[in-house]
Amino acid sequence: MKELKTYPWSGHAVIMGVKEIPGQRTDEVLLYFGDKRRSARAKYEEFVADGIGLGKRDELVGGGLRRVMKAVGDDFISAYDERILGTAGFVQQLQEDKEVAERLDTRLPLMQFVEEFAKASGICVVALSQRRRGAELSDVKSVICHVATRRLGYSGSVVATVLGITRSGVSRAAQRGEVVLQENRHLLDKVEALLNRSTPSP
Known about the structure:
The chain is mainly alpha-helical. Helices cover 60% and strands 0% of the residues.
């Protein structure tokens, strides 16, 4: 819950008053939990924490486009970003905001990261999507899951599709990947080199 407050690809931090995103209607959400902002935030946070125990919920699984289609139907969506849950108007509003657009546009493409990190680690890319075993392969997969979801902001379902594993498997691997990076400086250096190289110059 502490990490969620600062996670850049979620509106939770906005609702908790840690940051601002133009267009996000924080007050409308908080009104469901109380009239006073401070107590409403506390109840909202309890609500989110309680949801963890509910586990995977099929109605909430899928990328942003899939969830938007469930919400608004099959009408043409003129603006779309898989990281954002909302109507086309909301997505477009974020894309037009200079600060937000810069953050959205600088994300390293997932497949590029997977391919380049696998190559730098001496792992065949094809092996990543196969059910092969081995400590080295497992470490690389775990690091990819961690970096893709925690550093690059990709959803677990997208990463799961690329690696051929389940969304819950991505979640478990991401936690393990953090430990792997802490214990293996050479892998951390490779990750940082790839991420830094993808960051455009000011």
